[in-house]
Amino acid sequence: MGEQSFVHSHPGHGETDLVARISGGIKGLMHHADDAVALAQGPGLLQGLDPRAKVAGIFALILAAVWTQSLVALALVLALAVVLGTASGIGPRRLARQVWGVVAAFTGVIALPALVLVPGEALLPLPFGLAITEQGLRSAAFLTLRAETTATLALLLVLSTPWPQVLKALRSLGVPRAGVMILGMTHRYIFVLAETTLDLFEARRSRMVGRLDARAARALAMGIAGTLFERSLYLATEVHLSMIARGYRGEVHLLDDFRFRARDAAFLLALVPVCLALVLR
Amino acid sequence: MNDCVFRLSEVSFSYKGVAALSGVTLDLPRGRRIALLGANGSGKSTLLRLLDGLHFPEAGRIEALGAPLSAAALADEATAIAFRRRVGFVFQNPDVQLFCPSVFDELAFGPLQLHWPRERIRGAVTRMLDAFGLTALANRPPHRLSGGEKKRVALASVLILDPEVLLLDEPTAALDPQATDDIVTRLETGFGAQAADRTLIFSTHDLDVVARIADHVVVLEAGRVVAEGPTASVLADTALLRRTRLLPAQAIPAVG
Asked: Which of these, A98, A87, A102, lies nearest to A2 by C-alpha position?
């Protein structure tokens, strides 16, 4: 199944079974995480760079992509991201499956109305006196392309860098300790809570005969959400106590053992003209 | 008893009005391997949390390493750091203890909070990873480890601090026989093997683990200490063990 989808079908149950789909989705999340770890630790252009250089360079590209007012420039950054990804074992097919389709679906909801709602020169008349305008088309294209480009760059970072190194790099680059700690623990406990959720769903399923109708399945999911909330509060308290037991007093200290080499400098230097061109264009 | 790591006097504690410990008076001697033995809900975990200064008694007092153990005492940073350097606690559920992004960071967490020099931390983590057979897992996120591996990481993350007193809450709970043997062997031959003044205090209801590790046993029942003594004599008292639900109510006939 891999990166294609977070949803697994459960043997013997239909895709419409909400409980089965949630369980399958959680299993897919775990599988996806393993896949991402393997990719980040494998060979590749981005994998070989100092994480600080990667975080700084990709963040600069994201900022420049947000800043630029040129569709062509945006398209070129997206093309650059695809080239970087391909050189790092993250090909266009993976990007399309993991980013482009999802982002297009979400931004499309916002971008499509802009086609007709933004006033401007009519390009294509529609019924009820509406028309797709040139300005509307441009706005929709900007929104979609910006979202696609920035999401692609962010995905490249997390797929080419083990998450602990992303956190350390953020800390090295001056992101406050508390923020880095919260990010790290959020990532960590997403999996603990996902496993707990899976256990809860499977425990329920093991005691069910036949299939639930949609209403009962929704009620079950809501009940489990409540239980999970309560457990997460308990877990948060326990984690805090375990941190105190090892000397935590409100300020987290991290080890930083990165090595900045010539290729990292070359990567950053190569991005400088790209970012400047985007911003100044 | 003069040389005690912990002295408890009439200690009581409750969770939202439900008594967990009631009037516990206990001296825990230095240099011993002490088992807190009791059935589920007997107060073992609560007692360990009080000994580690994670909770504080509602009544009575605790003295740790010769000084009062209280919220006020641990509010002082120097006192808290000194206490955390000397007393380590391994939680029953490793998922609450392993919160760092990698196994390496997990082992480095405690020393970093206690302000060890960076080079000393790197050296200690590397040695501890090797000693616990975790080198290959150093960059793995702890949540992707097996139950036995998580327990090993949790134990290593506390032992790296080289504590004088090691508190363990159900160290072998939910482990398969080989993982249990691995942890027990590490406790038998590792902690305290070089220094006679190291104290191990662990909670369990597994009599085999008690027999292998402990030289002193405290039996708890419904939040009270009901027996205390050398391991051999406590384990020989089958009536006590049955009454405290540590043995089946009736002997199970041997198979074959």
From this structure: A98
